[in-house]
Write a structure and sequence with these properties.
flat, COMM, alpha+beta, 1 helix, single chain, about 80 residues, Comm domain-containing protein 6, three-stranded antiparallel beta sheet
Length: about 80
């Protein structure tokens, strides 16, 4: 993760997600777009929680889902799971 020394992180990782509707923004008066928010949560060695929010459109989320499914399939084929 940018700005975080990966060696200082422990191996635990949690994922929270929610789906919401963006109805407007400071640049677009009427947006009406589905937004998926993912919070990647891990714990630093000192015990503090590190939360990295990621917002994406529904199309971007579907691309991410497809990519994760492809990675999972390749790992199964390589007998890594």
């Amino acid at each position: 993760m940018p700005g975080v020394d990966s060696a200082s992180l422990t191996s635990d990782l949690d994922l929270e997600w929610k789906i919401s509707m963006a109805v407007s923004s400071s640049e677009v008066r009427s947006l009406n777009e589905v937004v998926v928010t993912l919070n990647l949560i891990t714990t630093a060695q000192d015990g503090s929680k590190i939360v990295r929010p990621v917002e994406m459109t529904l199309a971007q989320f579907k691309d991410l889902k497809k990519t994760v499914e492809n990675i999972h399939q390749q790992m199964e084929n390589a007998k890594l799971l």
